[in-house]
Design goal:
alpha/beta, 4-stranded antiparallel sheet, 21 helices, 64% helix, 12% strand, elongated
């Protein structure tokens, strides 16, 4: 067993130990079943030597009844072991899925930049299922077989040392086969796991962008690409199958060779054993080599499960935690009691040598609204991501309500912050369910009032009202309706700080007029940071900040910036011309 195998098994046992009662019941059933496995061949010997060969009928009925009962109970115990193992495997897979889900929810955006969602889904589903199968048909049953083998050898040695040696002579020929097949299967299952992860990632991406695939007539090319990825999984699975199939005929041949050696040895040494002892040993030999033959299948399941374990634990060990704890730090200078948001000398880059923010300084006074504008790629939305700690600032300080955000518990940070993004994500469920996400205790009256205040009256007039069902990703609603839901969601949550990240970019002019009216309601009584291109939204802000090349190029009121004739004046002119052209 390799070091990585041992590590995976040890960590897996820690997952199982909380369910020690099921594990204990399983072990008791295993021991009882192994005892009956030892008893029945011995009863064959008694029937033959004490009754059949000497023609004695007295007591035969009791032995036969005992033998029949032992066989029936042995079958029941095996059923119990299988059921207990299934329960144990399901408990383990449930715990692993919850652990993965909890872990994935705590990762930051940088983690998902480096890990495809489809591959992660493959780990949560396929890999965890393989771990469950390893419990049901692998690890514990492997222990059962080992316990059975040891018990059989001990019983045979008790009955006859010489016949035991003859029975086990062929065992060494199996070891090289098992070692070879295990190495090959481990490589093959790792290839299968990687290919399945790639396939899941590919399918998620293509189905998410299905409209684009269809518009550009990429269906055939997509099928071909999917087929190539699937073929890799198929070829790897076939390689592991060939390795596992090799062990079956070798083990089966070993069992027959052992029986032949046993009979040949007894035939030469006539006085070494009675007929009953020979039959018992043939039966013991069969029961010894049958578990060894089963080990081939268990190796397949175990190797698949071990690879699944490694992939699961690789995810659980991954870094880039969302809002990780950091060492206590003091602000380089005291935070202003008047400012809700302060960024001081903030630097950040998504990739090395490609800085996005280059020592940016920004302050937003409490109860005011500040619009941030600039060219695409200037770093506007990055400000929002750093403020919410979806990414970590690489230098400088990000302060919210007087506290460095890296010193705040993530729950507290995000309770004070509500972000309304350009791409509104809607979960399948009712309108009410989606609005009360930020405050589960919100009543129907709270939700209906919020929709009224943001101009979402038409949503209340839909059949079903706020109980109307929304399809996955809001496919049965317009972009404007989805944005109104996101505004109502923000209003119901009622955070101290509101951030609009291009929130009005994807709506039609009619809906924009409704939304612009709703913004006055949203801005009232709270601090607002607005990332926007729409002139109507920008003009509503108390102050406008222009970002260029990762720094603040200019800031002031709209009138001040227009009078200065700088970047903002140029930008507004371009936006006005664009609006007129459309």
């Amino acid at each position: 067993m390799t070091t990585s195998n041992r590590s995976a098994y040890m960590r897996l046992w820690r997952v199982v130990l909380p369910h020690w009662i099921v594990l204990l019941v399983t072990l008791v059933l295993i021991v009882a079943g192994a005892g009956l496995d030892m008893l029945t061949p011995y009863l064959y010997k008694v029937v033959i030597d004490a009754h059949i060969t000497v023609h004695v009928a007295r007591g035969l009925g009791a032995i036969v009844a005992l033998l029949t009962g032992a066989i029936i109970v042995r079958g029941l115990l095996r059923t119990g072991v299988f059921y207990a193992l299934s329960v144990l495997g399901q408990h383990a897979s449930h715990d692993l899925r919850l652990a993965l889900h909890t872990h994935l929810l705590s990762r930051n955006a940088a983690f998902y930049d480096k890990n495809q969602v489809g591959r992660l889904m493959s780990t949560v589903t396929t890999d965890v299922d393989n771990v469950s199968q390893m419990f049901t048909n692998g690890v514990i049953t492997f222990v059962v077989d080992v316990f059975t083998l040891v018990s059989i050898v001990a019983t045979m040695l008790f009955l006859s040392v010489k016949l035991t040696i003859m029975t086990l002579l062929v065992l060494p020929m199996l070891l090289p086969t098992f070692a070879w097949s295990q190495r090959l299967m481990r490589r093959s299952f790792r290839r299968v796991g990687d290919a399945q992860g790639n396939l899941s990632a590919y399918m998620v991406e293509r189905l998410t962008g299905l409209t684009l695939v269809q518009v550009y007539n990429r269906e055939r090319a997509t099928v071909d690409e999917c087929g190539a990825i699937s073929a890799e999984s198929r070829d790897a699975a076939q390689a592991s199958l060939r390795a596992s199939m090799t062990t079956y005929p070798v083990t089966d041949a070993a069992a027959w060779v052992a029986a032949a050696l046993l009979l040949g040895y007894v035939g030469v040494a006539h006085s070494i054993a009675s007929a009953g002892l020979v039959v018992a040993f043939v039966e013991y030999a069969n029961r010894f080599y049958t578990p060894i033959a089963n080990l081939a299948q268990k190796l397949v399941v175990s190797q698949s499960g071990i690879v699944g374990c490694e992939r699961v634990f690789d995810v659980l060990d991954s870094g880039m935690e969302d809002a990780p704890p950091v060492a206590p730090m003091s602000l380089e200078k005291p935070a202003s009691a008047e400012n809700a948001i302060e960024l001081r000398g903030v630097k950040f880059s998504y990739r090395p040598d490609e800085p996005i923010l280059r020592g940016l300084d920004l302050s937003v006074a409490k109860g005011t609204s500040v619009a941030v504008v600039g060219a695409t790629g200037a770093g506007k939305s990055t400000l929002v991501r750093l403020l919410a700690r979806h990414y970590e600032a690489q230098a400088g300080e990000v302060v919210l309500n007087g506290r460095e955000v890296r010193q705040m518990p993530i729950e507290e940070l995000r309770r004070q912050l509500t972000i309304v993004a350009q791409d509104v994500f809607i979960f399948a469920g009712s309108i009410a369910d989606n609005i009360r996400i930020g405050r589960p205790s919100a009543t129907r009256e709270d939700i209906e009032l919020a929709l009224h205040r943001v101009g979402g009256t038409r949503l209340l007039e839909r059949p079903g009202g706020i109980d109307a069902e929304i399809s996955e990703r809001g496919s049965n609603m317009s972009a404007g309706e989805l944005q109104l839901i996101s505004f109502a969601r923000a209003l119901v949550r009622d955070s101290d700080v509101l951030v609009l990240d291009e929130a009005t970019a994807n709506v039609d002019p009619e809906t924009e007029a409704v939304i612009e009216s709703a913004l006055a309601t949203l801005f009232t009584g709270r601090t607002s940071l607005i990332i926007a291109h729409r002139l109507a939204t920008v003009r509503r802000a108390d102050r406008i900040v222009v970002v260029a090349e990762g720094r603040i190029a200019e800031q002031g009121t709209r009138d001040e910036l227009l009078a200065a004739g700088g970047l903002y004046a140029q930008l507004e002119g371009e936006l006005s011309a664009s609006s007129s052209a459309t």
